[in-house]
Amino acid sequence: MEKYMYIFLGGDPSHLSPDAQQAHIQKWYDWVQKLEKEKRYVGGEALLPGGKTITGPKKVITDGPFAESKEVVAGYFVVLAKDLNEAVEMAKECPDYGLNGIVEVREVMKFDNM
Fold first, then answer.
1. Beta carbons of 94 and 8 less than 8 angstroms apart
2. Distance of CA 14 to the CA centre of its chain
3. What is the pTM of this model?
4. Dihedral sign, CA of 17, 20, 22, 24?
5. Burial class, 65, CB count within 10 angstroms (exposed 0-12 / middle 13-18 / buried 19+)
6. In the Cβ-directed half-sphere of 6, how many Cα atoms lie within 13 Å?
7. Which pLDDT value is given to residue 67?
8. Which helix (H) or strand (E) holds 42?
9. Is-contact 87 4, C-beta < 8 A?
10. Which of 14, 38, 77, 90 could form a disulfide linkage to 44, CB 3.0–4.6 angstroms apart?
């Protein structure tokens, strides 16, 4: 099994009613429990909006990313899968697609001798 990272973009549930938000959060808990039961879930966290961005050789610091952006990173998971195709199939269960969310699936690079 290899490690893959799911990078969750967009999928903001803040416009939903409180009951709908709670139901959406439950879908996330259910998905994590399923991945844990399958011994696929390594870890992950949701990220708060905002923060700072540091760019370039001069290390310019700016505010952002901003929650209004469709591509703001909302969180990440690390999962185990046999290959990229399996990781993609597993990612299709993400609850945020109904909220126009995006999941970027990336293999975690291994560094030998470190």
1. yes
2. 17
3. 0.88
4. negative
5. middle
6. 32
7. 55
8. strand 41-46
9. yes
10. 77
Alpha-carbon distances, residue 38 vs 3, 84, 102 (angstroms): 14, 17, 23
Share of the chain above pLDDT 90, in %: 71
User: Is there a contact between 99 and 31 (Cβ–Cβ < 8 Å)?
Assistant: no
Q: Which two tokens stand for residue 62?
A: 């700016």
Q: For residue 105, which of 83, 29, 40 has the smallest C-alpha distance? A: 83
Paired tokens of 97? 């697609």
100: tokens are: 């126009």
Residue with more model confidence, 2 or 64: 2
pLDDT band at 48 (very low <50, low <70, confident <90, very high): confident
Close Cβ partners of 4 (under 8 Å, ≥ 6 residues apart): 78, 79, 80, 81, 84, 87, 105, 106, 107, 108
What 3-state DSSP class applies to 105?
Answer: strand
